[in-house]
Amino acid sequence: RCERATSSRVPRHVHGRDAGIPGSAVLTEAAANWTDEQRQAIAQRGGELFLDAGAGSGKTSVLVERFVRAVLEDGIEVAAILAITFTEKAAAEMRERIRQRLRELGAVEAARAAETAAISTIHGFCARVLRTHALEAGIDPGFSILDEREARRLADEALEAAVEELAESVE
What we know:
Blueprint lengths: L12 E4 L19 H8 L5 E4 L6 H14 L9 E4 L2 H17 L3 H6 L4 E4 H11 L1 H4 L10 H23 L1
Parallel strand pairs: 3-4
Antiparallel strand pairs: 1-2
Helix pairs in contact: 1-2, 2-3
């Protein structure tokens, strides 16, 4: 079930299974600033969660708090958590904020572990999975991912070759 929120400070969509709100042992100064939807998203532990909202709505703060609480309250190892975001910049910011929050709460070892946590873009996550299982996937373990410039160059070359082939077949 997706819920729409009208405030710009809350996620437009909060979706997950078992959205019960368990009690929380980690109380934050920021907790007073959470909206009801944000509190629900932070507290939900029973499955996946999809947050979709505009810029500046608090998505990263909610995800950081969920990550930290999963580690400190639920005993989940940092290495067992996957956090996906859209850009490398957002992933780096999330990683730093998680590390900072864990240090604030005295969880120094968990903060260190967050340095190598699976916090990335969907592309980065897929690349990690493919690198780990390249042979099983039937791909060269030394594969590389095209950057935007190289992809554009190859697309241009393919288009040029297709036009040339078409021109030759018409003659």
